[in-house]
Queue: 4 jobs
Job 1
Amino acid sequence: MDKNMQDELKKEAAKVAADKVQAGSVLGVGTGSTVKFFIDWLGERKEKEGLTLKHIVTTSSRSKKQLESYGFKVDELADVDEVDLTVDGADRVDSQLNGIKGGGAALTLEKNVAVNSKKNIWIVDESKVVDHLSGFKLPVEVLPVSCMQVKKRLEKEGLNPEFRMDGNKKLTTHYGNYILDLNISPIPVPNGLADYLDHTVGVVEHGLFLGICDEVIVAKSNGTIQEIKR
Ligand code: 5RP
């Protein structure tokens, strides 16, 4: 799919989600190019109908800056009891609404906001929808202090880790950690891999988001929108 077409679809999915946001609610806002459109639509609602929210939390400084540019005040997750709805993008989503996230390296905060939300909606174009999680390297955030040992361990497991780079340096996340992208496709047993990574010392978080998403809004190239609910 060409990038212009993909952007159009991202924009459409983002609009459907923005229209679902209830005034006065606590909103979580994710990260990425699809979410960027979502924030633009929120900005439009603020301008046209004076949309206000009780609290907004977000998962990256990029999204925070954009929200603030529309006059929204952004709070820290720690200052909010519970989030009513979080809207985020995804890199892949399967038929069970499990997903791979972290293409933008914001997975740790994304998962923290998501699991503290009553409802999670993902907005995607149709190229992200797959039968089984595949076609995208799985991001794993690791502590710098043990990154080489974790990499070796993951290599031994046949998970083909490679550091995500930023030029000729290892990319650092918001929390000062590194990302190892695992080159495995398809992921044969997502739950098993998630469990293994959850128990690997030095792994801060991983991009398998299993049983978290409640609804996916998919924009399709035939002009339709599909809303898939858990
Ligand atoms: C960032 C993410 C994003 O939601 C994911 O990468 C999708 O991004 P985009 O909307 O740009 O395709 O998980 O960590």
Note: The pocket of ribulose-5-phosphate is lined by residues 30-34, 88-91, 101-107, 110 (CB under 6 Å).
Job 2
Amino acid sequence: MRILLYGGSFNPPHLGHIRSVRTAAAALKPDKIFLIPAATPPHKTLAAGSPAAEDRLEMAKLAAGEIPGCEALDMELRRTGPSYTSDTLRQLHERYPAAELVFLMGTDMLLSLESWHEPEAILSLASVAVFAREAGREKRIEEKAAALREKYGATVTVLTGEPVTVSSTLIRRLLPTREGREYLPDGVYAYIIRHRLYGARPDLAWLRERAYGLLKPKRVPHVQGTEAEARKLAERWGADVSDAAEAAILHDCTKKLTRDEQLRLADKYGIILDKCELENEKLLHARTGAALAADLFGVPEHIRDAIRWHTTARAGMTLLEKIVYLADYIEPCREGFSGLAELRKAAYEDLDGAMELAGRMSLAEVRSTGRQPHDNTVNAQAYYARKLKEKNVPPVAWTPDEI
Ligand code: ATP
């Protein structure tokens, strides 16, 4: 039996790792493949702010799922102290005494192998397979392989194939700027975003695809319009444009659910609904949407709150909350209701004036149908009316249509 072993920090595992294992598997036809994330890599320290061992193991499992016959092992994560490869190989040799162990590594690891703890033991317990991390290193690899063969009697197989030139370090640097997704297996990327590892923020094209999948098709243009409007408002008022887009993309993510489904979600996420929310189905999706967006996509608190308050509004909203609330109200697909033109103008002239007007319009609309408006909307309108008074600015002129 032949077992292919691949050790590393896998912080996170990426397509370079996957390409390397696939190439080795095709060439060496192992019976088993093990990815072995290191607890404390001896040759390098884990980057500050690295995820917990369990997260790296989970990501290694997701990466292993991309490769037939591959499994992620937690043996190094369970051991204390530095993760010496020689210890791992001894343990595996005990567990599989008849197996041929092949240790797969990239160029950097091959070149530094002699400085590892107990290199002789490593090279006697396992043969080595090398896959270049970047093109142009063939000569250096062949030289090193020859030296190891001669000095240690090592078996070294140099694999050929096109490398994926990327490192976990580069990916960690890209993720907070919404980049780097193209270097990661889908499952690993989704996990990173869900748990917001490495300060990651989602690629918005990726997020749109997932968020639109949660909507009724007829609602997609509205969400697209809300995103476009939120971006424009964020630019106008100096907010983070991509955060505004993220909140807008997700703001209606539970809108298509039935009342019962909303209530089940509220229960799942421990949301306590008040009487008014329980009586108004339309109010539920802002509460459940914020919780679902946090659960599926790890949205941080300021984005969660923008989703949370996009229907009722509240007194003292943040800039992002106001932007998402107003974008939802005035986006280009909206038409045919009294006050819309005035609100569109106000949203770009004076945010407090726009919030006050939106509050008045919303209260009038709810009351016109005989329903009781939510206290948060009543308070929001009163709050922004007060703010206008303090600034000595008259409210935007608008009279509700006669009913
Ligand atoms: P970091 O950037 O955090 O140092 P890394 O990208 O080098 O991480 P590791 O998890 O430390 O990844 O590497 C595990 C193994 O994968 C090592 O043998 C390494 O040489 C190899 N490796 C890493 N990146 C590539 C790549 N792009 N192509 C082929 N092998 C790679």
Note: The beta strands are 2-8, 32-37, 70-72, 100-106, 127-131, 156-158.
Job 3
Amino acid sequence: MSEGNIFSVSKESRRFSPSDEFRAAARVKSREEYEALHRRSIDDPEGFWLEQAAQLPWFKAPTKALSWAEPHAKWFEDGVLNASVACLDRFQGTPTWQKAALIWEGEPIGNDGEPEVVTLTYAQLHARVCKLAAKLRNLGVHAGDRVAIYLGMVPEAVVAMLACARIGAVHTVVFGGFAAEALRDRIQDCGAVALITQDMSYRRGGEVKLFEAARAAASQCPTLRSVIVHLRKRENAALDDDAFARAFALEQTVVRLTSANDLPPTREHAAPAEVPAEHPLFVLYTSGSTGKPKGVLHSTAGFLLQTQLSTRYVFDLKEDDLYFCTADVGWITGHSYITYGPLQCGVTCLMFEGAPNYPKPDRLWEIVERHHATVLYTAPTAIRAFIRTGEEWPKKHDLSSLRLLGTVGEPINPEAWLWYHRVIGGERCPIVDTWWQTETGSIAITTLPGAVDAKPGSAGLPMFGYAPRIVAEDGTEVARNTGGKLILAGPWPSMLRTVWGDDERYKAQYWSEVPHVYTTGDGARQDEDGYFWIVGRIDDVLNVAGHRIGTAEVESAMVSHPAVAEAAAVGRPDDLKGQALVVFVTLKGGHEPDDAMRARLLDHVAKEIGKFARPDGLRFAAALPKTRSGKIMRRLLKDLAAGRETKGDTTTLEDLGVLAALRGAEE
Ligand code: WT7
């Protein structure tokens, strides 16, 4: 499956130690201390995790840590709890209850030059969650039912997740950038009975018409019985109930998320469901190497415990921190490190609705300054975009409140790391790189701040409970500084439990390639100090501007267009996006490969999947290079897309003329 050997050419040797001041106040203060904790979590996982489990507010505490019937894990099986209680109710009667849980900033700037800011204390967030939980129950949503959430970056997204968790319903958040078709496929795949959406959301000065997409999707989803609409737009919020019903007419029952007439929920209706530890918490769809997105299933206790632990340690959280994560709630980072991790820690989380560079390239820095953010967690692709617009933009702002920076999503190139460190962190903030996946649920590799040095470009050392290793094609462990496949040995509490509705795919994708270990799909090397250096994906999955996109998904969207005979999608290195998406297309007879067709096909992919998956380049070809057995030779297409000489073996190519013709093709 992987093409060629995985090797790493990075020779980065700079290291950055935390300041004595940071170290003195850090939760873990030295590499020795880190290693002792990590070793214990690996040598005695059951003892370690059962002890840690005391951090969760149980209705009934577990007596047992793990049952492992490879590849199925059950953690804390006889424990009983509720995720919304772990994030909210646990603080009732403590000072945290009156502290801000969320500070949200809207994208539009008002006439007074100020954006809308909403602050919700833990008590207020709890009240909203109870209200929505009661509403869901009234609509007949039961524990175990799936509820789709298709919202922008609004506090209601967090409210919706926690309300589902409160009644034991399984949420599936669909990124607001996805199109109607992608939303429909996800609702259908998990058989959601309710959908929580909004009229529209603001993004980069424009309006994202979420409800229109929701309407189109809902009409093709027979399992969907009710739709709850959050009214974001002021004009809509003023609708009376009749006007609302007319405006949002759907076959399904439609109700507004909050309305003035809402009665306070009764104690019974808002009561948290007492669910077993392994009760499913959410399904989150992610790209794999086949065309169909995978519904990654996470369960309750293990996910909660490991997100809580990692949030506290990796971001070194303190009582007065203002934690700002720029990820979208539609991705795993928004689940683990906006919602479940930080709220369990009782921290104040800053949430921003819009694009980090709208209306000006310094919007993010303006936000950091306005709210005095202390921890910032963002993605390398965003950092590269900031580098491009110039350091004069962050320089306009006082960023001295920041004390820790984080990155996630793809390998960070050392130059971007150094810029982030100097320009944003004022050379005073440690940077935590964090490697993990939708499937791991929590951060697996990182540079624990205060405890260990950072090496720009390296993801760092294993988090508690994780045992990463580098193995060769045949599954044997390789020597230090040798590239190979990154695997994780043994189960950990926040790991995915299965692929929704497709346990065979779960086994095949993650637990078959190398016997008895979890395959990540990434290539990496481990250096002489034990630090991991991630090279990138080795399967047919691209990482475009931090979005994980399966090439097969793009191809199947492309060939669903009636003019297309065949398509092959590949990645090309890109300064800004990390990888750019290039598609080679052959048309059916009677269709012209002209610019109009190119635009139609690009639009078609954007319509099927979402704008973020719109290919960066499209080349028409008379034929695609294939092996004699008919397999498309992507290796050659990748070289072509990158403008490289096509190296390597072409002897298996069926028709050499195809390659010559492709070289002449333009994007
Ligand atoms: C893939 C997982 C985990 C939240 C965001 C993405 C890549 C992620 C890093 C990092 C190098 C990284 C990997 C991984 N990745 N973080 N710090 N350094 N690569 O979640 O969509 O599930 O994607 O993102 O290739 O397998 P995801």
Note: The chain has three domains: 20-68+78-82+295-536, 85-273, 545-663.
Job 4
Amino acid sequence: MPAKWLKDAVFYEIYPQSFKDTNADGIGDLNGIVEKLDYIQSLGCNALWINPCYDSPFRDAGYDVRDYKKVAARYGTNEDLYRLFDEAHRRGIRVLLDLVPGHTSEEHAWFRASQSADQPNAYTNRYIWTNNWFCGSRGLNYIAGEAERASAYIVNFFKCQPALNYGFNRVEEPWQLPMDHPDCVATREAMKDVMRFWLSHGCDGFRVDMANSLVKYDDENKSGTSAIWKNVRAMLDEEFPEAALVAEWSCPSQALRAGYDMDFCLNNDDTGYSTLMRDYQGGGEDDSYFRKDAPARDINRFLKVYTRWYEDTKDLGYISLLTCNHDTVRPRFSLDIDELKLAYAFLFTMPGVPFLYYGDEIGMRYLDLPTKEGGYQRTGSRTPMQWDGSKNLGFSAGEAASLYLPVDPAADAPTVAAQEGDPDSLLNFTRKLLALRHAHADLQADAPFAVVSAEPNAPFVWRRGKLLLAVNPFGQARTVKCPAAGMTPVFTHGAAKVNADGIELGPQSFIVLE
Ligand code: NOJ
């Protein structure tokens, strides 16, 4: 069963490079996160996911880990991170770190030993080496010509990220080790050791990078990779029963059965997420459900996958919807502020555990920027948090040229300070939604969900426990027939009211009825 504290959890994702710089070097740091914990608490977020903050050459923004147990100097020290855990806990905020179990940096000590001419050694099989200096294998990317040993190695993502060896579910060639090979089991144990290290220093769990791809040539059900996570879960249940895990898997039916508490619904085309808020690829008409003037909106394009997952996993754990993340475009890319309010009303009242990406609460823009640290098109969603109208929009006292990435140059760049005093701002609307969620157990992770009305090109009406919710994304009023008679509003945005056969919804409105 998922950790109990997740029932009312709302996560805030922090890309540490870009959140708050306290030493004027142009890069965010852990002390900056500590400084802003009161702000995060004021939003109604009670949990954090911090992207990798470990020692790294930063060729993939820290997803290329050089030392799993050491904080990168640019962010501070391990002691700073322990203090962050303490300060967060004092405010009732839990902290998940990002675990990158599938690969390391090519500069990790394990890889240095594994690739050396001095063979065999304790790390010979920590990575996946092929049988000669120039060969790969079906479906696996390999790098030749880089290592001292006369062999090529398999990578998981970029060239700088050699894949750790958890074995093959189906062995096709002699160099492919089976999952139960002692050297593959040793890789799993080494990753458990990393988890124990941070959990025993106060971390509350992990977001797990590429959680579904540890074992190679796995079967359709990912039974090999799942067996590893079940083993990890057994360790957590025994040693850290409150620890939470959220998977980057985007298949809750598999991830939650493998022992995860939560799995992200990512904006892959096949999840339908990008039909709520469009992603980079979207050519043609923008039919995002929350666009005021979408030519052909249909919430079913999202629900057809979501409800199947929900029905299959509601007793096992949670699906996590997100505003966006460091890999996707910001929702402001396709939605304006009024549209974002409705999208957030939906995301933060659905079941499961929601995630808010830093800056989305003020509607930060996706910027068109050259790549930074392997970001490529993701770079535009990773710009510094915009706090106020001061130098560098309050992110850093350093010189503009030293910033990790530039801040939004627009004259109307949204900032926290500008939105604080405006009761209608996106910031304050987000706060109201999260306060509503915390005030009603029926809006939290566990409360039942059912679709009430989901016609194509129409508002969406759904039930959470004893509450009835409706959203009208259209720029015109719409009426929906549904059993709402006698119910009273607990939250209204725009003009919306109950009539004899249903709900009258004004343009771009949202209502929650009890
Ligand atoms: C997924 C992470 O979210 C992404 O940022 C990273 O580049 C890849 N995994 C590789 O670790």
Note: The radius of gyration is 23 Å.
